[in-house]
Amino acid sequence: MRIIVNIHSDLAAQIAGWRAKAVQVNDKREAELEEALKAVALADGGNLYDYITNEDRLSCDWLLFVNGIRIPVNSALKRTIKDNVQIHLIDNPQITPLPSAG
Fold first, then answer.
1. DSSP strand E in 57-100: where?
2. pTM above the 0.85 mark?
3. Pairwise CA distance, residues 83 & 31, whole Å
4. Nearest of 71, 40, 25, 34 to residue 55 by alpha carbon
5. pLDDT tens for residues 24-53?
6. Kindly report the CA angle at 59 between 52 and 70, in degrees rounded to 5?
7. How many CB atoms lie within 10 A of CB 72?
8. Beta partners for 48?
């Protein structure tokens, strides 16, 4: 199966090295969301799952949408998704950045 990943965060796009990408996950017609996100390679050699999770839960720094449905913050990503799903990653607008020292 494959997924289409769209990154709407400038910081995440810089780390990923791209903004939108089709990613081959496995040779089946479905996968767990966790498996799919682990298949999304970032420019530094890491993967999207490790970048957006904290202790295997979606970090509050991100909004994650799967086929238009928002995944709740702090939820486990152990849900089944189907082939050709659209995934959108957005900065959480409720998170206030720390002021820069200067």
1. 57-58, 62-66, 69-71, 80-82, 85-91
2. yes
3. 8
4. 34
5. 999 999 999 999 999 999 999 999 999 999
6. 90
7. 9
8. none
Strand partners, 69: 66
**Cα–Cα dist 92/60, whole Å:** 7
Q: Which domains does the chain have, with CATH numbers?
A: 2-91 (3.10.20.30)
> Mean pLDDT across the chain, nearest whole number?
91
Q: What is the mean pLDDT of residues 47-61?
A: 94
The pLDDT assigned to 93 comes to: 73
pLDDT-derived band at 95, boundaries 50, 70, 90: low
- Distance in angstroms (rounded) separating the CA atoms of residues 66 and 88: 7
Pair of tokens at residue 5? 């990943």
Tokens of 46: 């890491």
